[in-house]
């Protein structure tokens, strides 16, 4: 299907020819402060780096939104990464804005690419030089997540795609060896029927090169014909779920949903017959929350307000009826509930250094909860919810049949707010089920893989000690 240009199409500063951009030599500078990381689900709209860095604080103050995607890191005409093609990665204004956001509990993703300018994978002609540029950006901004927005001519450049995947895989491995995680997202064009062949090829190449792709974020915009844009976005997400399962067949359904991101263009699209409305935003948010989609973004934060006239295509307003920051507020509902406050999320470690694990990564009601080697999968990714429940794969840690006796086995079950799903921190790192007064306990005691968890009288031994995510 013919497509107008996408995310950066409206960005006049990015449309400058590479030859007219000021060459910016890499600058030595102190890195931004480390960030707190990201919850299991979050909204992170694209922020135009050619606008003021104050956009981050303004949106956070207005909505509570704490996560943002910086658009875009591109070439300055050489193999040198810059913001918007003409601003240093170490720019003091952006570093200060990022540090302020992180001190308030937020974080940023840097997006490489976009629809205009020179994509870095094309500008750098060797794996080693490209890797060095990615590393410079990650280290300077102290990033744990990066986004590769590959579209237009860059998507069809198979040599650049292969070079990029090799460079990123090598960088991921280097960081992992140093005890650091780097999540890599790919943002790609999509139809309501799913990704096109060139995007599938890119992802297959990433897999073959050993790159761990954390999120495939689809640009649910600019399809061409007039469509219900909310339904088009959810249809594309459903189609993507099937396609991801074909590329990564060992992943569970829930793991595949958790690999997804979804990025509409709010309001009037480049195809002006297409309008993504505030009602469409609610539809997509509810779908993402229900299915466990990791990321909601949109193009772009600077457009998240009404225009003087509805129906207007603009880079500074949406062209659809809305209040200021209405799309940000709506999408932010997936981030730790309606307040937008993220909850602690990560692994829960216990006896023998093992993790609390959902057997076979199954989200079926009644699935056993056990000890298992920590492996970083979503079956071990627990959220400490505000209501006292522990949640993973969209369900809750539950005492079977609401039992309170010694030996009651622990299972996964639909979250229902009952006392069987409440847990409180007790003495000596124990987890207490208040209604029973008993502790979460590794049976045996054993630290073998597959050891079931149960309720038992609290006595504070090692098999009742648990470290929750911070």
CATH topology of the largest domain: TIM Barrel
Low-confidence stretches: 1-28, 337-341
> Which outline best applies?
globular
Percentage of helical residues? Answer: 25-40%
What does the average pLDDT come to? 90
* CATH class label of the largest domain: Alpha Beta
Distance between the termini: 46 Å
Please, how many helices?
A: 10
CATH architecture designation of the largest domain: Alpha-Beta Barrel
Strand element count: 23
Question: What percent strand?
Answer: 15-25%
Structural class designation: alpha/beta
Major sheet description: 10 strands, mixed
C-alpha-based Rg, rounded: 23 Å
Task: Itemize the secondary structure elements and their pairings.
Layout: E1 42-43, E2 46-48, H1 54-63, E3 67-75, E4 81-83, H2 92-103, E5 107-113, H3 120-123, H4 127-141, E6 145-149, H5 158-177, E7 183-189, H6 197-208, E8 213-220, H7 229-247, H8 253-258, E9 260-264, E10 267-268, E11 275-276, H9 278-291, E12 295-296, H10 326-331, E13 345-346, E14 355-358, E15 369-372, E16 382-384, E17 390-392, E18 395-399, E19 410-413, E20 424-425, E21 431-433, E22 438-442, E23 453-456
Parallel strand pairs: 1-12, 2-3, 3-5, 5-6, 6-7, 7-8, 8-9, 9-12
Antiparallel strand pairs: 3-4, 10-11, 13-16, 14-15, 16-17, 17-18, 18-19, 20-21, 21-22, 22-23
Helix pairs in contact: 1-2, 4-5, 7-9
């Amino acid at each position: 299907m013919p497509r107008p240009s996408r995310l950066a199409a409206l960005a006049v500063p990015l449309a400058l020819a590479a030859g007219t951009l000021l060459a910016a030599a890499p600058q030595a500078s102190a890195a931004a402060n480390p960030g707190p990381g990201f919850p299991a689900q979050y909204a992170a709209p694209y922020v135009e780096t050619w606008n003021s860095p104050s956009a981050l604080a303004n949106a956070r103050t207005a909505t509570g939104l704490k996560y943002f995607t910086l658009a875009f890191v591109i070439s300055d005409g050489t193999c040198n990464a810059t913001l918007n093609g003409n601003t240093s990665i170490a720019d003091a204004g952006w570093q200060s804005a990022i540090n302020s956001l992180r001190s308030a509990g937020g974080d940023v993703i840097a997006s490489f690419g976009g629809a205009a300018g020179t994509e870095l994978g094309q500008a750098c002609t060797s794996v080693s030089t490209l890797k060095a540029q990615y590393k410079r950006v990650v280290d300077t901004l102290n990033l744990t997540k990066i986004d590769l927005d590959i579209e237009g001519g860059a998507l069809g450049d198979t040599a650049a795609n292969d070079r990029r995947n090799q460079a990123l895989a090598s960088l991921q491995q280097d960081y992992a060896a140093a005890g650091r995680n780097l999540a890599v997202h790919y943002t790609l064009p999509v139809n309501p029927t799913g990704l096109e062949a060139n995007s599938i090829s890119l992802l297959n190449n990433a897999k073959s090169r050993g790159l761990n792709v954390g999120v495939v974020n689809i640009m649910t915009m600019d399809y061409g014909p007039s469509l219900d844009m909310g339904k088009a976005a959810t249809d594309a997400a459903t189609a993507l779920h099937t396609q991801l399962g074909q590329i990564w067949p060992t992943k569970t359904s829930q793991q595949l949903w958790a690999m997804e991101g979804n990025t509409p263009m709010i309001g009037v699209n480049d195809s002006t017959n297409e309008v993504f409305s505030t009602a469409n935003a609610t539809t997509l948010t509810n779908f993402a929350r229900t299915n466990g989609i990791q990321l909601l973004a949109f193009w772009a934060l600077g457009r998240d307000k009404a225009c003087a006239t509805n129906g207007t295509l603009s880079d500074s307003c949406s062209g659809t009826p809305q209040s200021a920051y209405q799309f940000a507020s709506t999408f932010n509902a997936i981030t730790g509930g309606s307040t937008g406050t993220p909850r602690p999320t990560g692994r829960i470690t216990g006896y023998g250094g093992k993790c609390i694990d959902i057997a076979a990564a199954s989200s079926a009601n009644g699935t056993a909860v056990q000890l298992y080697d920590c492996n970083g999968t979503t079956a071990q990714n627990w959220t400490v919810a505000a209501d006292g429940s522990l949640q993973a794969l969209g369900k809750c840690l539950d005492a079977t049949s609401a039992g309170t006796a010694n030996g009651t086995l622990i299972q996964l079950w639909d979250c229902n707010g009952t006392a069987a799903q409440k847990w409180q921190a007790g003495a000596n790192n124990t987890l207490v089920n208040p209604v029973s007064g008993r502790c979460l306990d590794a049976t045996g005691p054993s630290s073998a893989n597959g050891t079931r968890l149960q309720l038992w009288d609290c006595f504070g031994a090692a098999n009742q000690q648990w470290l929750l995510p911070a």
